[in-house]
Write a sequence for this structure.
């Protein structure tokens, strides 16, 4: 779906503050994937995702969306933007219309769709993020923090992109607001078959959500694999300035004490399951 | 321990401009902040925790009931500056509370407002920047700093007033994990080493776990109170309010459902590991 | 796309000129500007040019930064020179069809170019060697006597400081909003003027809203730090005239006297 080939991006090239944010990255995002993208601030992940929908043009290397090369005269940029939906960090600042409906409809309206189709899409997006339809006629500025966040995500979903990229969608939300948004994203990913790239600082969120994890460090892809593999490499993650979920540390310590647990346990339910097996196993041996 | 801030049957309501209805945000709160403690007010968005915090330095005054700072009533207007100097306040967005274009000048802002002599201002700025470990950046421009560094400058700006209590209203909500750690370390230094009374308003349970005492707020009331261990061991109650418990506590709780017999006041990794081992060996 | 804008054009350094008190620099720049307009002898201009070149060298700022300021108004300089050159009366020294250059026109044009170039150079050196905050402090200090006629000097300085503080923040924010709206398919590049103007609405409204929210937050934070206007306020940094300031004054005043004398003893 999205393919990055030897992509590099350098800020203020040639100037005194030159800095390479993304360094020769090769990465493919496939259809039907839910990819977690992690890395500490300055690892290049924000630049990377902005290259995926053409907001930033790579200094060198090529980007393909659906087989079409970006920044090529033949490729219409707006088509790419509608195919790759990007929700930026703290998206509340982009709200500007009089009603929530109009704001969600802003993207689809830019696609020159007929009114009935815009309406259908707004309602679809509204349901997808779990926003009550009666809120559609309210001013977006009267919504609560969590509702604003969901309305802005709906504004991108309403374009019905094939890939949805979310940069820190839960930043600043409380646990229930966070859980709601993550649940909606996963649900939509499963039902509508939208590929999702989720950027997050929260290891717990990524551990609970992703099928595949890409770890960025110093502008390069440092690790790429299934969650169990990635979280099994605790020392490496820590050397990148990242932590692992607390359950991963707990099960890791138990392994060190000689208990037989698989590497890279990263959710509470998985840990419960595996520790229960130990208890039963110990019981059987007696 | 003597209380520095005390709320008595504090109620606060406001009138919505649009529908003209009264909304009661705080529904009768009795609480106190004790000298030298690290108190955490935990609650989800809309629970009233920030509204409560705004009563501590008289940004808001109660609709009903009273709030005292020392023996000063926060609704007495002539005490306003005394109260604000004694209770310093740090907000969520570090960008929106830094006034000056150079770090040290921002830290000097409050002492300048207090009309202190120049030597005193300089010594306070030195002290404040040292305490938050930002001396190396004194001549930097704030907009070039990281989020955690900006927030430390904001804390220094409040410290320079030499307050007795420092109230931080979700200071880490907009920061990355590195920034959050910096702020939590700064808070702990303030409390443990400098003996400063700290009130931290947050919805992050891992931050609350570091406090001496937690007040859990929900729907304008205080629902739970106690040490972190006391509060988090009531897993059902905490979850019902829409808050998290540490994963270690959640793990112990789930294991107990399946026949383990672990204590529920487990908060950190080490406690959890040693207790699971004990249980497994008893088998 | 806005990341490359540097605020003002302050070029940090530790030269003699950098270390001068901002008040000194502002006053001396004003004196220099007056001299540039008073001078009317070739030697006078040569002296002023030599002086400003010397100052520029002392600052150790690469010359290309100073010339950058000239580039932006190059068109204006050429235009005024052109008008002066061809549209003045006097003895004709060169003619081609209806275009003629007179001795008076040539003199005026050259004087004009010299004045504009010196003007730009002088003010560039002021802004290149003085941080915006020092400039604000300097202006506040110089305007202080006007407090007596109820000029809100402290308030003006405070506003300038806050503006300087928030310009980079708002630039960042604008960048983010543009990106977010572009991601939703706003097209800023194509279409007619009305269409393009309309495309600005989704940027301006969020920017205004966020600025108001920031202003609200900042006002609250300032109040929490006991801000109460300029009353009884003290300052950490007090501007002090040092020896180098007197040297600066001395040199500039001497230059002024010479330039004025040269005006009368025309060579």
């Amino acid at each position: 779906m999205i393919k990055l080939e030897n992509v590099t991006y350098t800020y203020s090239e040639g100037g005194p503050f030159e800095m390479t944010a993304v360094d020769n990255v090769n990465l493919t995002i496939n259809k039907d994937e839910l990819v977690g993208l992690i890395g500490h601030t300055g690892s290049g992940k924000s630049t990377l995702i902005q290259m995926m929908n053409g907001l930033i043009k790579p200094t060198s290397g090529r980007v393909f969306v659906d087989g079409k090369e970006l920044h090529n005269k033949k490729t219409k940029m707006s088509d790419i933007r509608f195919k790759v939906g990007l929700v930026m960090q703290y998206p509340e600042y982009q709200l500007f219309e009089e009603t929530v409906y109009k704001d969600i409809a802003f993207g689809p309206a830019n696609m020159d769709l007929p009114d009935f189709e815009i309406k259908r899409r707004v309602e679809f997006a509204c349901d997808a993020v779990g926003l009550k339809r009666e809120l559609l006629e309210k001013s977006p500025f009267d919504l609560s923090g969590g509702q604003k966040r969901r309305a802005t995500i709906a504004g991108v979903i309403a374009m019905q992109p094939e890939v949805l990229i979310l940069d820190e969608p839960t930043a600043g939300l409380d646990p229930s607001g966070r859980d709601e948004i993550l649940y909606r994203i996963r649900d939509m990913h499963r039902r509508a078959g939208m590929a999702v790239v989720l950027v997050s600082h929260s290891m717990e969120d990524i551990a609970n959500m992703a099928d595949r994890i890409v770890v960025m460090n110093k502008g390069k892809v440092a690790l790429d694999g299934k969650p169990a593999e990635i979280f099994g490499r605790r020392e490496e993650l820590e050397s990148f300035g990242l932590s692992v979920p607390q359950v991963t540390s707990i099960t890791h310590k138990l392994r060190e004490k000689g208990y037989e647990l698989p590497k890279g346990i990263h959710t509470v339910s998985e840990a419960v399951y595996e520790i229960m097996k130990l208890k039963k196993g110990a019981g059987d041996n007696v | 321990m003597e209380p520095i801030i005390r709320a008595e049957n504090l109620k606060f309501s406001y009138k919505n401009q649009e529908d003209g209805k009264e909304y009661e945000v705080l529904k009768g709160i009795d609480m106190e902040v004790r000298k030298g403690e690290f108190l955490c007010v935990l609650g989800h968005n809309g629970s009233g925790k920030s509204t409560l915090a705004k009563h501590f330095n008289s940004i808001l005054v109660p609709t009903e009931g009273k709030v005292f700072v020392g023996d000063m009533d926060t609704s007495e207007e002539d005490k306003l500056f005394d109260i604000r100097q004694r209770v310093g306040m740090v907000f969520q967005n570090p960008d929106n509370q830094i006034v000056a274009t150079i770090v040290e000048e921002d830290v000097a802002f409050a002492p300048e407002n207090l009309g202190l002599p120049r030597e005193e201002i300089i010594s306070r700025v030195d002290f404040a920047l040292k305490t938050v470990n930002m001396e190396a950046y004194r001549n930097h421009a704030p907009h070039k700093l990281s989020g955690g560094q900006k927030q430390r400058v904001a804390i220094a700006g409040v410290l320079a007033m030499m307050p007795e209590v420092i109230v931080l209203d979700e200071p880490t909500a907009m920061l990355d994990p590195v920034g959050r750690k910096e702020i939590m370390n700064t808070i702990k230094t303030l409390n443990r080493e400098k003996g400063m009374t700290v009130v931290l308003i947050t919805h992050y349970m891992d931050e609350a776990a570091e406090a001496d005492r937690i007040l859990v707020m929900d729907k304008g009331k205080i629902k739970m109170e106690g040490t972190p261990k006391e509060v988090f061991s009531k897993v059902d109650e905490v979850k019902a309010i829409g808050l998290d418990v540490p994963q270690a506590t959640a793990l112990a709780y789930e294991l107990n459902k399946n026949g383990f017999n672990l204590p529920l006041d487990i908060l950190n990794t080490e406690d959890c590991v040693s207790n699971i081992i004990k249980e497994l060996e008893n088998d | 796309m806005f990341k490359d804008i540097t605020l003002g054009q302050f070029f940090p350094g530790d030269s003699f000129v950098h270390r001068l008190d901002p008040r000194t620099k502002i006053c001396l720049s004003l004196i220099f500007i007056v001299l540039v307009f008073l001078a009317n002898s070739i030697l006078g201009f040569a002296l002023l040019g030599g002086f400003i070149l010397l100052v520029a060298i002392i600052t150790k700022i690469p010359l290309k930064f100073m010339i950058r300021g000239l580039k932006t108004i190059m068109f204006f300089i050429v235009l005024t020179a052109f008008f002066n050159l061809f549209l003045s009366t006097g003895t004709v020294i060169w003619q081609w069809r209806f275009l003629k250059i007179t001795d008076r026109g040539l003199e005026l044009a050259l004087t004009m170019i010299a004045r504009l170039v010196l003007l730009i150079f002088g003010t560039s050196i002021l802004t290149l060697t003085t941080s915006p905050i020092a400039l604000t402090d300097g202006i506040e200090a110089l305007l202080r006597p006007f407090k007596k006629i109820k000029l809100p000097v402290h308030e003006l300085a405070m506003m300038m400081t806050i503006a300087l503080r928030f310009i980079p923040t708002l630039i960042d924010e604008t960048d983010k909003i543009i990106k977010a709206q572009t991601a939703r398919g706003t097209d800023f590049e194509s279409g007619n003027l009305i269409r393009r103007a309309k495309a600005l609405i989704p940027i301006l409204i969020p920017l205004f809203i966020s600025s108001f929210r920031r202003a609200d937050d900042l006002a609250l934070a300032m109040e929490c730090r006991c801000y109460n206007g300029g009353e009884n306020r003290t300052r950490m940094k007090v501007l002090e005239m040092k020896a180098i300031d007197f040297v600066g004054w001395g040199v500039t005043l001497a230059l002024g006297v010479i330039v004025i004398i040269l005006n009368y003893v025309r060579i």
